[in-house]
Write a structure and sequence with these properties.
This protein is an alpha+beta fold. The chain has nine helices and 16 strands. Bound molecules: ligand 2P0.
Length: 320
């Protein structure tokens, strides 16, 4: 009746932005990501028929805001007739600041809930449940380079290269701590309904995915860098042109982009990507990671720098 699972956040290189079915939380576009190693979320789920309702603590503090989504996720895995759950979540990185904390949290809670409830679903089913809770969480079920493809009636998620097959590194430059102004679920719907660029964003995504997939298969860093930066800036252009505008960047975000352009001009194998928050993630060839870490740490407005390799998918750490 108790299980603990751990999962890592993932960083999308080809982004998910927009839903084709909000009720089933199906993405409008496929996406391609890398799962990190050093950042993680651990989720413990204990089912207890003696309790009246679910409870959630995040890093030791009661957390009411996230509880309905966690409860709905566990319902999805075990059915609504399940016993109430005590859920304890611990992350070693800032949550709700565009660092994909919902991806690692929902991937881990999906696996922990399934095992606590005596089930042992395979990765495809876990990814479907996690993705229904949070689209990006489907990708954190898997490690390394992960592609989420849209199918006629759902999603198909698979690892396209293992972490050790192309051991890139990621430097995360944190430019602001604290919650973001608007959550990505709401912001995606604003973009879908109001952005004049939304339809071309959707129309071009398969081409970007094919380019990125081929670049990963060929271990072609320059090609991956070009399509990932383009896809990221295109997504943010969709957001900026929404009404009201969705702007996650701050001035330090832009300074980090200048730092990356400087590193590139000096021949370092690095590229940037940004998600629904002001942090800048810099993907590096292994021999460029230290120069990137030092340059980002010295960039004005950067409050913290984290460094990570690529890691495995969600896994169980304890069951009782
Ligand atoms: C991604 N993001 O592909 C994109 C890029 C943010 C920008 O997936 O509504 O928390 O829970 O399905 O997965 C963040 O959105 O959204 C996200 P929901 P999610 O990583």
């Amino acid at each position: 009746m108790r299980a603990t699972a751990i999962a890592q956040p993932n960083i999308a290189l080809i982004k998910y932005w927009g839903k084709r079915d909000a009720k089933r939380n199906l993405p409008a576009v496929g996406s391609l990501s890398i799962t990190l190693r050093e950042l993680h979320t651990e989720m413990r789920v204990q089912l207890d028929p003696a309790l009246a309702a679910d409870t959630l603590t995040v890093n030791g503090e009661a957390e009411a805001g996230m509880l309905p989504r966690i409860s709905a996720c566990i319902d999805g895995v075990l059915g609504a007739e399940r016993p109430p759950a005590v859920v304890d979540s611990r992350s070693n990185f800032p949550i709700a600041a565009g660092l994909a904390s919902s991806a690692s949290a929902f991937a881990a809670v999906t696996l922990a809930a399934a095992v606590a409830g005596g089930r042992s679903p395979g990765p495809d089913e876990l990814a479907r449940h996690a993705g229904r809770a949070s689209g990006s969480a489907a990708r954190s079920i898997f490690g390394g380079f992960v592609e989420l493809a849209n199918t006629a009636d759902g999603i198909d998620v698979r690892m396209i290269a293992a972490p050790d097959e192309w051991p890139l590194r990621v430097i995360v430059a944190v430019t602001a701590l604290g919650a973001k102004p608007v959550g990505s679920t709401e912001a995606m719907e604003i973009s879908r309904k109001t952005s004049p660029f939304y339809s071309s964003w959707i129309a071009q995504q398969d081409q970007d995915l094919a380019t990125a997939r081929a670049a990963v298969e060929a271990r072609d860093f320059e090609r991956l860098a070009a399509v990932a930066e383009h896809n990221c800036l295109k997504m943010h252009s969709v957001m900026w042109a929404s009404r009201p505008p969705v702007v996650y960047w701050n001035s330090a975000t832009l300074r980090c982009l200048e730092t990356v352009r400087g590193l590139q001009a000096r021949g370092h194998g690095v590229f940037f990507t940004m998600d629904a928050g002001p942090q800048v993630k810099v993907v590096c060839l292994p021999d460029a990671a230290e120069a990137a870490r030092a340059a980002l740490a010295a960039t004005g407005g950067v409050v913290e720098v984290m460094s990570s390799g690529l890691g495995p998918g969600a896994r169980l750490v304890e069951a009782a």
